[in-house]
Fold:
Amino acid sequence: MDIEFVAATAALPPKSALARIVFEGGALDGAAGQAAAASRFTGAKGQTLDILAPSGVDAARLVLVGAGKKDAYDAMGAEHAAATAYSAVKASGLTTLRIELPNGADAARAALGVRLASYRFDKYRTKEPAEKKPSIAKVQIATTNVDGSVADFAPLAALADAVSFTRDLVSEPANVLYPVEFARRAAQLRKLGVGVEILDVKAMRKLGMGALLGVGQGSTQESRIAIMRWNGGKKGTPPLAFIGKGVCFDTGGISIKPAANMEDMKGDMAGAACVVGLMHALAGRKAKVNAIGAIGLVENMPDGNAQRPGDIVTSMSGQTIEIINTDAEGRLVLADVVHYVNTRFRPKFMIDLATLTGAIIVALGQDYAGMFANDDKLSEQLTKAGLETGERVWRMPLGPEYDKLIDSKFADMKNTGGRSGGSITAAQFIGRFVGKTPWAHLDIAGTGFASGSSDINRSWGSGWGVRLLDRLVAEEYEG
Structure:
């Protein structure tokens, strides 16, 4: 997608659509006013009105896009309105879209909205009719400050690239994106200046990562850990650490899942994809921070070598774990990676992301991620960043009442505490490997994939979390 910032007076190219963002109840004149009067268009948020061959307008098509109440409009409103404008005309047959914003403000955020809305994962579609493919190749954002908008959009363009990279990872099928290939794609960040280290099975076995290796032992695909380092801050400053669950496909193992919808389990690595995307964003905009991204990459399969319910494994921390359910595998992966990152890098904080439990979907649906934290400040910062980006989190409880549910009769702990409070006991499990480091766990089972479309996301793989964490870093930790 080619995005330009232009003055509002610039001539429209041939085969153009013009989109005007208007407020609810605002006065409209000319062709726009006549069309609105003959319809139910009021300017309410998300409304569109398409006018073909409008008189008095040098465009083949005029689209009015409602932005809602003027006093509630902000940069995020510009982002969503621009995304709606693009979606309204993307397959119209026209090649250029110009978007006129109220007062020409928030042009960079509008451009970000278009970039996110225009994403498609269509690399495996070979017979899609041409008329169903987007025809808009260029979007012009009209603004009163062209140079300033170009400068403001530069870091947002890097963010959009990172979200697209994340969506690509989540959407890939598991026969293409298995652990070794995922690690290879993470290693592509070296081109952006990110240091990448890959741990193979031999290295993990030497480190004593019995929890992670136990998950992957039933697969013909070897497990991997990818460690990504971005050193953009002051030398010697403790890094921020982000850790992702990367189960490239999850059958449930011996505790096998039902067949219905199992194809969605190619997305059980959305937490790892988010971490890679975040490191992409930080490097792309040259963030002034030191950061670690670590992802545990496995495939959970049920063959004759797979771990069984009742097995006991020893984690890198030395703590032993009784396997109650082999489908509670993500927390086993995170146990070893969290401990490894904590002891090796001594980070300022750790945030892990995982499509961990169906229980969090029951609790929160698909609009919020579940957040568990041992640190109030970090929790508050994540909540704020979530409201600012639309990637919202809701804090859930932790406590000794829940922790005792994962005590085992035969080992230090068991990997599930039963149905009640399932997302909480999963977080308690991870918390046993955190120590005293400030930590937050984000359960993104409801938001990481198949979370429903929105103005800025029409993709099955949402890329959720990249914007949240990039905003957290930018506002709270860069310096």
User: Anything to note?
Assistant: The chain has 14 helices and 17 strands. Residues 70 and 211 are 54 Å apart (CA to CA).
